[in-house]
What does this fold into?
Amino acid sequence: MERHQTSVTRTPLNSVVVQRRSKSKSYRQSYRSCLGATSRLGFTPALTAQRLNASRRAPKSHDITKKVNPEHLNLLMKTEWQLSYVTPLYQFRHTQLKSYSRQLSAFIAAEKQQGFAVEVDGSHSFRVSFSVVQGMVETDHDAETILIQIHSSPAFARQDEPQKSVWRGCLTCINGNPDYIHSLLKDFICLPLFGSSGPQGLTSLVKSWFQQTFDCYFGPLEISNTSLQWLVALWTNCHTESNIQHLKMIWTLPAVPPLQVTYSVNPEDAWELWSSVRKAHQEENEGGEKAKDEAIVDIEEVMRFMQCLKSHFYRHFRLDLSAGSLDQVSTALGSAKSNGRIKILNSKYMITTLTLLTECALLKMPI
Amino acid sequence: MGDSLKRLLQRLIRRIPTQMLKLTLEKWGRLTKAQQQSMDFTQPKWVLTERLLGICEENEWTVKHITELEMIYVMDNPNQGMWNAFQLIDPEDDFQSVELMKFKEQFKYHLGELVKHVSVKMKKHTDEAVWIRIAWGDSFSRPNHLKPTYVVHQLQAPYVYVTSLTLKQKPLLSQALILATRYQALKDANLSGRNLTAIRDLLMRQYQQVFPTRYPSPLAEKNETVSNTHIEREQAMFAANRHRMSCEAFGDGTLPQLQSVVYKLETKFRDHTNKTMSEREEPFRCVVKFASTNILESLRHCASSGIVSTPVTPLLSSIPLKGKNYFVITDNGPGPSSQKRQPQS
It folds into this structure.
């Protein structure tokens, strides 16, 4: 709890300290974490993005419904994914999906016979299907997204009874860092973001099959404080195009017993606050060395926005939210939790969210 | 034995934990000695349920008997639903608190006038409170015993605690209560929680009271092992100061157990670094909810550890002072004002 000790008794105007600390959290598992903590101008090796981008494009409404099969899109949305990162897959071929489906089905059946507990009540056989989600890419470097579904048939099913979908997973890479992708050896495919939804037992079976088959490694992907704050800002920025309904943030404070604070802001007011922060930031930068592109959102704007929200809160309750940790954010566009669970509810802004998450996953890559 | 009666008994037995079943049945006293002895409480729940269904048939129990058992269980274990507090206001001129028999009779009569099919059952608890169980029906359907409303009222105090009441039933209950108690209105007290005793203690001021002006200051040193360096002394002074102020706001005894506090803020956004928002006419609308297993305990800890700056803002200290946990804050009134509770999710 060293974090809260430094910020107690202070007014919330110390965002810089908190911000830097929370950022460094996301590097903890990267081999180069020592470098990540140096200044923004510090040495950046070519192989990987060392830190989260300090600025990113404001979400444009991408109408990916035209590009992507609506059935696939439906499967990707409205599911709460538990995220992991995956190291590059060795000799993964998008043309071999049929064979992978068979292999994984057989693998699950074999593991089950050995007595591995797969807790899906009453199901006796599993059928795996791999498919490509065509069109879910942003650049030429991105490998096509893979969707994995596991269906099961109940023990005493009738012939005509449809199989039940019991598990779902996806592997994706949206706007992956081209430098990193090009630096990979020839036979490696980079699909760093893995989401799963379904029984834990199946998730670990799928992971171990991937690890054995493609010589890769899975690790948990938490969504850092900074990434959650990015989502708050990026989602709020969409309000004029697509109503966000509410901006809800949940903090946990290290009190005894633990205190949870839910802060829900009216969507109009959140947007007005956001645009005032944007305006002020752009005025500041005018006449500076570069005229700001309106489509670019800067980390300073994000932090300023959060600071405004926190200080409004502080003015009423004299409680500094920086003393706690941001656990969850949600709007009508989606929800994200710090333990790595994410749900996307609007396909238009899916790409922006996945870009951010791909970046987080790439930060975890060992080199 | 009707299906609905069977379902009612099954559901009730499912709710009662096995280790409490024996005691509850004994209190109820509807089993013969032999039947009581034939029950083996080490057996699984479903076996016991089957046995009780059998006895139910033998003894020809009716809905009346089963609801009686339910009331005994609920009165012993009140902390299972969300309790909302209401306050009776404006007593009539010649007001005297009604005595129990009269209240029973009046309440049943008036509610019966308002709703065609309604089943009311009342029981007096040891602590002088009347417990009322209402199963609601309407002109076409018979009372639904699976979703009863419970009402607790102490005849000497103008407060009523209610659980599982729908918006449609609220005016009916309010009307019947007003007529039976000879008050003129029933007002939402803006206090709710899972622990009935805590809510009652807050409203009746039955926990250790805080008198800020008379709080002993400074606190007696609890720990004399502080070494003599200046820094430590200064730190200890700050800590003691924070502790004193947190106790001024919340007291230093055990605090009533509340699970959440909700503030609906409609105040101007004031921030000297943000001119656009500060100049805006409209208020900044947001809802803040604090949640914890014991919210007052958490807030007191926040204040004494420094997460909440001291002195504690009146917004937080008015939870115990006013006995409320729902507030609407606007710029017009300096203190917390309130309006009708919105149905909360």
User: Anything to note?
Assistant: The domain at 83-204 of chain B is CATH 3.60.90 (S-adenosylmethionine decarboxylase).
